[in-house]
Structure prediction request, 87 residues.
Amino acid sequence: MTCPRRGTLAPGDVSPPENARTRRRVRARAVGAAAVLGQEGVPLVIPWDRAALFFVASAAIGVLASLWPGRRAARIPMLTAITADTG
Prediction:
């Protein structure tokens, strides 16, 4: 049951299941972080060739995505574009 004024639990109420789920998630993340931080001497391996490939692919997709709006904007006369009402 929630308090009608604040929308929070009133004193003595049982906490909802969402809180238990949230506590489990926080606990699991803390255990995972402790496990990762406890590893010493584990090298960080970055596949530079794959990282470069993804960078080039995302840049190409960005350029291709901007071609159509750019061509469309280039067709509008400059003074018309400046004086256009945007509101």
Remarks:
- The chain has a mean pLDDT of 80.
- Helices lie at 17-37, 48-74, 78-83.
- Residues 46 and 79 are 50 Å apart (CA to CA).
